[in-house]
Amino acid sequence: MSTDSPTLQTTSAPEPAPATTAPTRRSVSVSVSTMAWAGATAALGLTALTLAGFLVSAHSEISSRDAAAADDKHAEQIATDYAVGAATVNFADFNSWVGKLKANTTPALANKFDTTAPKLQEILTPLKWTSTATPITAKVISESDGLYKVNVFVNVTSSNAQNPDGAQTTVTYNVAIDRNSDWKITDVGGMDGALPLK
Questions:
Q1: Which among 1, 194, 9 is positioned nearest to 100, based on CA atoms?
Q2: Cβ distance 56 to 152 under 8 Å?
Q3: Is 10's pLDDT higher than 60?
Q4: What is the mean predicted confidence (pLDDT) over 82-100?
Q5: What is the pLDDT of residue 55?
Q6: Which band of pLDDT confidence, cut at 50, 70 and 90, is reported for residue 184?
Q7: How far is CA 76 from CA 17, 67, 108, 134, 150, in A?
Q8: Of 184, 104, 171, 103, which is closest to residue 137 (Cα–Cα)?
Q9: What is the pLDDT of residue 54?
Q10: Which residue in 43, 57, 72, 150 is a FRET match for 166, CA 20 to 30 A apart?
Q11: Could you give the CA distance from residue 98 to residue 114 in angstroms, rounded to a whole number?
Q12: How large is the average pLDDT for residues 109-131?
C-alpha cells in the first residue's frame, strides 16, 4: 500500500503596488507691500475714472451754458436791430419804414403790417412825422422750446408838424423770436409808444 506524501502548496504573496508619489504643493507668496501697491493703483484708477466722468459732465454743462448765453445774445441783437428800425420813421419815405417793420418777420406778421400800413400812413403823413432811435438795452425775459421773448428799450426822438422842436421818449418793444424758424420775429408789441396816438 502506497501512501502519497502530502503535497505542500505554497502561494506567493502578491507583489506590493508601486508607491505613488504625493502631489507636490506649490505656494505663491505675495508681499504686503505688493498688495498695498496693487490696492493703491486700483484706487487711483477708480479715482481717475470718477474725475474723468465729472470733467466730461462739467464740460457738457459749460458748453450748454455757453450755447444758451450765445443764443440769448443773438436774440437780443435781433430784437434790438428790429426795434431801432421800427422806431426810425420818415413820413416822406413811408414804404421804406414799412419794409423795416416787415424785415426778418414771419409771413403772418409781415401780412399784418401790410394790412395796417395804409392806416398808419393816414396818421403819419399829415403830421409829417419823423423819428430816430438809439438803443439802450435789451434783455431776454423768457425762452421756451426756442421761442424767445425779448424786451428792448430805445430812446426815440420824434418831431412833427405840431411839435417841430421834437420830443424824446423811452419806448419798450416786446419782440418774440422763434429760433426754430431761422430766428424770425413772430410778434412785436410796444410800437404804440413810438408812434402818435390814433
A1: 194
A2: no
A3: no
A4: 96
A5: 72
A6: very high
A7: 101, 14, 22, 15, 6
A8: 171
A9: 73
A10: 150
A11: 8
A12: 94
Question: How many whole angstroms separate alpha carbon 174 and alpha carbon 87?
Answer: 13
Taking a C-beta distance cutoff of 8 angstroms, is the pair 185, 106 a contact? yes
Interatomic CA distance for residues 196 and 126, integer angstroms? 12
pTM (two decimals) = 0.70
User: Does residue 14 carry a pLDDT above 90?
Assistant: no
